[in-house]
Amino acid sequence: MILRPNHYLLHPLFKPFLLFIKQSRQLFLQNQETYDLLQVRTFKNMQITGDSRLDRVDRISKENTPIPKMELFLNSNPVFIAGSIWESDLDIISKGIEHAILNSWQIILVPHLTDEVHLLQVESRFPTKNDSLFLFSKENKLSYFNNGSGGLFIFFI
What we know:
Blueprint: H1 15-22, E1 27-29, H2 32-39, E2 46-48, H3 52-63, H4 68-74, E3 79-85, H5 87-102, E4 106-111, H6 116-124, H7 129-132, E5 133-136, E6 151-155
């Protein structure tokens, strides 16, 4: 659980719900701020466990490791990034991607599953793949490269 001072659960209108949560045997909190906000409200059954997903993202964002091939791909153009995407996500985002590429947007897709079958599913959704598709693997190999104005970059770690 993570809360901020202006979180709706802390509003007086939601006090009954907060009291319901207070009856929990144990609350696992993501940060000290949440702990402090609940402690002031006499919560006792809490411990800070953090969130390994958020902690990892925060740590990686501070590393700021440049990826030269991605910087070349972006070429100072606007970028749309979709991470941890599934096949069903492609149904929604693919409709706008072709239009965005034609308008010099760079698209970075990060599939949730990165085996060959799933990567081929992503590739097959975009007919411009031969002209503007990058595939970037954990080996830092580029399968396709085009230094044109708009393109699609499928990135996976």
